[in-house]
Write a structure and sequence with these properties.
Length: 86
């Protein structure tokens, strides 16, 4: 079975986001928007892979997210998994 997933990685709420704070402080300079009350940056990982079934795909995606995609000391992650039917 073929799967497509998106893994969203974000800093935990209690971790300071220096890059997000810099963007937040300057967003009004590039667009007609007042400074947002909150702005945090994260990352999105797109991955396509094969697995024998959806349970296996979810387990392996969780393992990769915990060990490779996110620094679980300061980041949380969540994912969307879809089967690709060709």
């Amino acid at each position: 079975m073929n799967f497509k997933a998106k893994v969203f990685v974000r800093l935990r709420e209690n971790v300071s986001d220096a890059a997000g704070n810099a963007v937040k402080a300057n967003v009004h300079r590039v667009c007609d928007m007042k400074e947002p009350s909150k702005l945090r940056l994260g990352k999105c990982i797109d991955i396509e892979f094969e697995a024998p079934d959806e349970d296996h795909a979810n387990r392996e995606l969780a393992k990769a997210s915990d060990l490779l995609f996110a620094n679980t000391v300061v980041e949380d992650w969540e994912c969307e998994l879809k089967e690709v039917i060709e």
